[in-house]
Amino acid sequence: MWAVFKKEWLGNFRTMTGWIFLAVTIFFLGWYFNYFGLNSGLPYVSYIISAVQFIFLFTLPLLTMRSFSEERRYKTDQLLFTSPVDVWQVILGKYLAAVCVFLPVIPVLCIYPLVLGIYGEVPFAENALAVCGFVFFGLAALAVGIFISSLTENQIIAAVLTFFVLLLSAMIPGISAMISEQGNLFTKLLHILELTGPFTYSLYGVLHWPSYIYYISVIMIALFLTDVVLTMRRFRVRTAGVSGTFGHILRAAIFFAVVFVINGLCAALPAEKQSIDMTYNSIRSLTEEGHRIVSALDRRVDVFVLVDPEQKDETLDSTLQRMQEVSSNVSVQYIDPEENPYFYLSYSDTEPVPNSMIVVCGNKSRVINYYDCYQVSYDYSYDVATGSYIATDYKVSGYDGEGRIVSAIQYVISDHVPKIYCITGHSELELEDELKGRIENAMYEVESINLMMHDDIPEDGDIIFILGPFADFNLEDSEKVERFLEKGKSAVFVTAFTDASELTNYYALLEKYGIQVYSGVVYEDDAAYYNTEPTFLLPEIVECDLTEKIYTPGRTRFVYLPFAKGLQIVEAADATATTFLRSSRASHTMGGEEEIQGPFSLGVYAERYGADSTSRVVVFSSDYFMYKDINLAVNGTNYDLFMKALAKVSQVDDITDIPVKSYSYNPVLVGNGARGFFSVVLIGVLPAALLLSGIVIWYRRRHG
What we know:
By secondary structure, the protein is of the alpha+beta class. It has an eight-stranded mixed β-sheet with strand order 10-9-11-12-23-22-20-17. It has a four-stranded mixed β-sheet with strand order 4-3-5-6, covered by helices on one side. It has a three-stranded antiparallel β-sheet with strand order 7-8-24, with no helix packed on it. A hairpin with a 1-residue loop joins strand 15 (about 530) and strand 16. The two termini are about 30 Å apart.
């Protein structure tokens, strides 16, 4: 076998075949790496592999077309058949030789994420999985090429047939859709021949191990059929006759039966058992929190997805399948709006968009808008004609399907859902969509209310948000808030970047909890407690139950509070207050009525005791704390702390908090100089060096 391997492997590099394959392949890999990686900053090799996949349908046949067709053409196969070497050893030697010509491409492919890793964060596990899937696809395609080469003595015909078979395999999804959009037994059998289908799991960051079993099966079947073809020809060459034909047929039947049974058993396993989610944020699997909640269900929950099953959202469907596997109490049904156009009227007056879901348990239901299941970021430009900003482009940046579905499930099975009223009418901030989504996913109802339109805050409210008002409350509004809190209700207060003297009534509400607000903003002189500017505070996180898992002894997590107001805890007869965010001793106020030396409280939790109840409030001293971009600057710690504070004031010990799963890493920024260098090396120098080496070796053999 090793003699055959050596002969074949050297043969590929003594001619131009191996060199052309490597040069062409590495050129196109480098070309797409330059486009997707160096220029676009996408840290995933899956984009590169997807782009060159079609090119490989042309180049891989170059490695196998000569394997047996050339032997047959020059009659040298008869020497192999009459030699003491077993046929399977010849086949394996030739196959391994083709594999060893293909494999040098892989180290080059592995270089790309390493290069990008110099300039930014790269998901190495997902990239490694994509490369691994690509390797198995290549190994299976080479085995198919070896088999086809054994059928003909013309290497051009062998190459064309191999290309045609691989191309036909890639076209099977489209062919199946033309035969039957709903699918039938024939299309299911046809998909068995789809060589590129299982490969896509690896590109999406899913370790789908039945796909690797499938590729190993394809390799074994292709090499086995090659053995059958060559063995039958060997019998014709030898004088032993064909007395063993029946034995070969029986052996083939047993072999195929075993392979199909193994693949069938793999396919029959639950989807959760077939794959491992290797995406960096587990986007294709349930979080530990979601798994815990769904597995604990003791009542039936129906999820109706309003869409034609053929047009379903694959990511949402994957989440729903996982939930069904975790709990038998989750039932998922697809309702085609064309067949049942008025189904939604039992649950909503407004027709939901396609792929929206209705979650039902008993008499309670909740509609999940499909668009709420994804986080979208927009690009804006200023329109001079209208004097406003208009959206010019958008990008889907995150997936929130699991959080929305789990929240809806908890809502329909719960007897009471805490309700939050966001106070408006005083130029307050609006909740960012991402934070609002997290609050709703944590099983809170959120509704805005203008105090001018109500005599009192409605009784069904449990918590109020007063988020950075720029205008002061009048006495009547202050009294409404005071009456609400006296009932043992809770509140989250945020102070805005404005002068304290203008918000007398608003700050008087805080003074009842022993919290005084200073005018001006906090200016930090200790460089360890601010970011770029002395007013962009990175305060000390005080260790307490509210900051659990956020406080770290070595300050590895930060809360970001630009333009924060200084808070001071003062004595109050019926209230206690605790600081959980604090400035350094080197801080002081600036821009206020007078300069006051720190340290200051920047986040306070307080309780006020009444005759029959206790009200709880949390105060954050910066309205910028609430902005999405500020939250992203500290990797989401601001919103994590806000959710902890919400759980504290609502006295919910087991708050559900499933964050939006971001789709990708931030783009990798590669400088112009480095981009030019790597482009020249990977697109020009390396392929040219390989091609030149092949030409030199070929010329010396030809004229030596």
